[in-house]
Amino acid sequence: MDPLAGLLDGPRAKGAFLLRMVMEPPWSVRVEDDAPLCLMCVTGGETWIAPGTGAPVLLRPGDIAVVRGPEPYTVADDPGTPPRALIGPEGDCTTLTGEPLDQSMRLGVRTWGNAPDGGTTVLVGTYRLDGEVGRRLLDALPGFLHLPADAWHCPLMPFLDEEIARDEPGQSAVLDRVLDLLLISAVRAWFSRPGAEPPAWYRAMGDPVVGRALRLLQDDPAHPWTVASLAARTGASRAALARRFTALVGEPPMAYLTGWRLALAADLLRGTDATVESVARQVGYSGAFALSAAFKRVRGLSPQEHRAGV
Predict the structure, then answer these.
(1) Which pLDDT score, from 0 to 100, does residue 11 have?
(2) Could you please report the per-residue DSSP string of the chain?
(3) What pLDDT, on a 0 to 100 scale, did the predictor assign at position 1?
């Protein structure tokens, strides 16, 4: 498994909220949809994004922004333009006083805005549920990231621009997969840019011993790993592996494995209807009781409570 594969295996959009926003100034949209992650690609004009914290950022054609939820943020033609629309959970759009705007601003299939020929066009893709984006990926990203057009090259943006307004059988599944690929491309470019500060475990992937250990754990989390068996597979002594792994990753090998197993289990619990017993065995626990004990100890709630969104 390459350095990003384990991290990026999580994105699996399911009926994601995708649209083309077409606007003419003045305009400003306040987003309070509680979604875990949103991608915005500017294909025409200029757009300002004011994240929950930090200064507003200007996006130009070819730029992409990734915003982590659930903190609200504002998208506008100018930072000084007051919000005129509010996006709530499930993508519902209203005025700030609650009057619905969904129908009056609908411009066609997955197209929305205040002017059919508006000078600003933004492609918006929103993951609705936490389980669609692995927690390890969310934790690795800042609250807001911006990739200018000259910092990355991705042919998926024009493809998404072409596909987003099509109304054909299976189109939602096509768009879900394009959104996943676009997210993966953006994250890869973000971690690869000059001066990037990726998480410690990502940097550790370049180490010949620790990188191999990480790939073994990610490839086969259900294996009954011990530090000794992991050391034997990496050609290092047990003490040397434990010391080197902890120094580079920031936690011991078995602690990392526990976190990885529970991250996988959390996504399976939210994303499938598999029983807790089945999930436990898929990620390396002897049964439901063992998984429940680990889940409660590390995450503070039971697998059933996590699945129910408590």
Answers:
(1) 52
(2) --TTHHHHT----SS-EEEEEEE-SS-EEEE----SEEEEEEEES-EEEE-SSS--EEE-TT-EEEEESSS-EEEESSTTSPP-EEE-GGG-EE-TTS-B-TTTTEEETTEEES-TT-SEEEEEEEE-SGGGS-HHHHHHS-SEEEE-GGG---THHHHHHHHTT---TTHHHHHHHHHHHHHHHHHHHHHHSTT----HHHHHTTSTTHHHHHHHHHH-TTS---HHHHHHHHTS-HHHHHHHHHHHHSS-HHHHHHHHHHHHHHHHHHH----HHHHHHHHT-SSHHHHHHHHHHHHSS-HHHHHHT-
(3) 45
